[in-house]
Write a structure and sequence with these properties.
This protein is of the alpha/beta class. It contains eleven helices and 33 strands. The chain starts with a strand and ends with a strand. The structure holds alpha-L-arabinofuranose.
Length: 646
């Protein structure tokens, strides 16, 4: 891994140095020249070059993409302290209301406990209960239907029907509410819908669960969903899915990242505990300091792939934890190998296979396509060497997976020794903008004889909580290198992808897409990436950039079938870049085409919730294209010219 920083904190310290490096004026540029040989395709562009990497970090799922609005809905046992912080007594009715965790009864084996709510004096005029703040607010929109559900069991004296409401924190006004009937003597799931009327969109709301009759009720898994992407019941947030879709991703690497590994061997990503009804998912600790609801579990990852037409890159747990403990290769590791094989069967097996049948039971009879399986995450941190030898953890997994699924391509997380070699190696690059820009030629001279490369995590680390324009410039420079070398680099994914911008929600400094409970925004780097993936041919064309200095970069791809040429120019200098472009090997070039530009006056420019479109691409229809043209590109700019050629 190439890392010039780690989580939150260091980014800020590095910011000044790296920006200065970017901004140092270069010598005055006379005229640079770009010569393109349209008729000299060098190699295919990997069809899976750009994709997504995600994990539960920065409240990426809970409080992010996963649309659930109630926080700590399972009263996480491991976090009783957090439980106390998150749920509170309804401020209007403190008298006579109490709650506690009942460890003796719960709705399932996975959730064998519940919340016991007792009301001494509640009445229709003075109901009492509990408040939940959501994930730093609960978003409300006008004329919107929300799906509510809860597991209930009556106490000795039945407290009667239970109401769930969204309440505005400023006015105390109920924005929408639903009523569940009085609970019976046994655990049962109740569902209801609630609808807002003519209300103003807001997020300064909370969820209130009340009873209006003295007595006791036990509850677990209160849940509230707004409309979701494609209307999926246990689904994902629409604005974030729209943003991800606009990145044109071809794959999704999941579930991590460190989230795959866990802090200790006990905290590994046990996929079997993330499938089936929510009540059968016990939750587990994310290594990023909070409990994961696992509401977005293995099947939801796969449906996410389906919804955005991405292929899954399935990371299987390989027996290593972040505290540097590992499971010894050999018999002790065998149960985990079996587990990975079963996971692959859950994804790809027909409904007549054991785990394919479980997937069908979970609501998806058709198998999912799968080409790549990644074994572990960042195993170079395991200094014991247990991963990489010919009898190491990688080899043990690889032998078994290849035997059962010979068609799969296997990704190792570091170079491995011995006869069992991976098809692809995942390499990670977290660098300052100046360093990543410099490194954009990283793959130019690398041997093509070994495994291909997956850049499974990369980012210029500048800007918090999302990258600034200086980072976007180096990210763009870096992507020119990925494209030029996409015979070797088969896949690449920026990380981390998502951040809830509430300061208490984030663990990592620089992240691609920011949001709060109600809205979201793409960073300049997000827009650079959407430009690079949205304007991409299927072959790399020979090109040479001269006289532009070391801070200008190019990548040229074509789609011969549609006669389209995409010329990408990154001007990383604070000066305009006059460029003479010469196109060889063409008969004619249409004068009309498009120029897409992302630029900003300052490398510090950033997008925020308050100003989400400060740095966005501008698309201009141009009519000055030709086989020989001159154009001056703006200082600090990322550009794509789309041309039609014959
Ligand atoms: O992207 C954040 C973390 O960086 C990932 O979890 C881990 O793989 C890497 O160290």
């Amino acid at each position: 891994m190439h890392r010039s920083k780690s989580p939150v904190g260091l980014t800020v310290a590095l910011l000044a140095a790296s920006v200065t490096a970017l901004a140092t004026p270069t010598r005055a540029i006379a005229e640079a020249a770009l010569t393109i040989h349209y008729d000299e395709p060098l190699h295919a562009v990997s069809p899976t070059l750009y994709g997504l990497m995600t994990e539960e970090i920065n409240h990426a799922y809970d409080g992010g993409l996963y649309a659930e609005l109630i926080r700590d809905r399972a009263f996480f046992r491991r976090e009783h302290h957090e439980f106390v912080k998150i749920w509170s007594l309804d401020q209007n009715a403190e008298d006579g209301i109490s709650f506690s965790i009942d460890d003796k009864t719960g709705p399932s084996r996975a959730l064998p406990y519940s919340l016991r709510l007792t009301a001494a004096k509640a009445s229709a005029n003075d109901p009492g209960g509990l408040d939940n703040p959501g994930y730093w607010g609960v978003p409300v929109r006008p004329h919107t239907t929300y799906r509510a559900s809860i597991y209930l069991k009556a106490g000795k004296e039945n407290a009667g029907p239970v109401t769930m409401a969204i309440v505005n924190a400023a006015s105390g006004k109920v924005m929408a509410s639903a009523r569940f009937p009085a609970a019976g003597a046994h655990w049962k799931k109740y569902t209801a819908t609630m609808r807002t009327g003519e209300v103003r969109a807001s997020q300064n709301n909370f969820v209130r669960i009340t009873v209006s009759h003295p007595g006791t009720v036990l509850l677990n898994l209160p849940s509230l969903f707004p409309p979701t992407y494609h209307g999926r019941k246990n689904g994902l947030r629409i604005d974030l899915m729209d943003k991800l879709s606009a990145l044109h991703p071809t794959f999704l690497r999941f579930p991590g990242g460190n989230f795959l590994e866990g802090n200790t061997l006990a905290d590994w990503y046990d996929w079997k505990l993330t499938i089936g009804p929510l009540v059968d998912r016990p939750t587990h600790p994310s290594p990023w300091g909070y409990e994961s609801s696992d509401g977005l579990g293995l099947l939801e990852f796969l449906e996410w792939c389906k919804d955005l037409d991405m292929q899954p890159v399935l990371a299987v747990y390989a027996g290593y934890a972040l505290d540097q403990q590992h499971i010894k290769p050999g018999p002790q590791l065998e149960p985990y190998v079996k587990d990975a094989l079963e996971e692959i069967q859950y994804v790809t097996g027909g409904a007549s296979t054991k785990w394919g049948a479980v997937r069908a039971r979970d609501g998806h009879p058709a198998p999912f396509p799968l080409k790549y399986v990644e074994i572990g995450n960042e195993d170079f941190f395991d200094h014991s060497g247990s991963y990489s030898g010919s009898h190491g953890r990688f080899a043990q997994f690889a032998r078994a997976i290849r035997k059962a699924y010979p068609g799969l391509e296997l990704i190792a997380t570091m170079p491995v020794k011995g006869d069992v070699q991976p098809d692809v190696i995942d390499d990670h690059f977290y660098e300052t903008p100046a360093a990543l820009m410099k490194d954009s030629h990283h793959f130019d001279t690398m041997s093509r004889k070994g495994p291909r490369i997956f850049v499974g995590e990369w980012a210029s680390m500048e800007g918090t909580p999302t990258p600034d324009f200086g980072a976007a410039l180096s990210d763009a420079a870096w992507m020119t290198g990925l494209e030029r070398n996409s015979d070797l680099v088969v896949m690449a994914s920026y990380a981390p992808l998502l951040v809830n911008v509430n300061p208490l929600a984030a663990q990592w400094g620089t992240n691609l897409i920011g949001y709060d409970a109600k809205q979201s925004f793409g960073s300049p780097s997000y827009y650079a990436q959407s430009m690079f993936s949205g304007y991409l041919g299927n072959q790399v064309v020979a090109s040479k950039l001269t006289g532009a200095g070391p801070l200008c970069f190019e990548s040229v791809t074509r789609d011969a079938a549609t006669h389209t040429l995409y010329v990408k120019i990154v001007n990383g200098t604070p000066k305009p870049l006059p460029l003479a472009l010469q196109l060889e090997g063409v008969t004619s070039v249409a004068r009309r085409g498009a120029l897409v530009t992302l630029s900003a006056g300052s490398t510090h420019a950033a997008n925020t919730l308050a100003d989400p479109r400060r740095v966005v691409p501008h698309t201009e229809k141009v009519s000055w294209l030709g086989a020989h043209l001159r154009h001056t590109f703006a200082p600090y700019s990322i550009n794509v010219i789309e041309m039609r050629v014959h």
